[in-house]
Amino acid sequence: MADKSPHVTHSAKKSGKALKVKRAERKEKADTTAQMDRLMHPRKQNG
Q1: What mean pLDDT value characterizes the chain?
Q2: Residue 11 pLDDT > 70, yes or no?
Q3: φ and ψ at 6, to 5 degrees?
Q4: Are 37 and 44 in contact (CB under 8 A)?
């Protein structure tokens, strides 16, 4: 019968970055894309 104990390789994987850091980067990226949209397509804002 196979050993059913959890192996060391199956331990919980820790994320590379903290959740706060990921969230901050995502928000920053969204802000920059919104700014670019405003610059490139000014008529969309008024529309």
Answers
A1: 77
A2: no
A3: -65, 140
A4: yes
> Does the model's pTM come out above 0.90?
no
Place of tokens 């990226």: 29
Length of the chain in terms of residues written: 47
Q: Which two tokens stand for residue 21?
A: 């850091």
User: 8-35 burial, b if ≥16 CB within 10 A, otherwise e?
Assistant: eeeeeeeeeeeeeeeeeeeeeeeeeeee
Which residues, at least 6 apart from 7, have a Cβ–Cβ distance to it below 8 Å? none
Task: Name the token pair of 46.
Answer: 């008024």
Q: Where are the alpha helices (DSSP H) in 1-47?
A: 19-40, 42-46
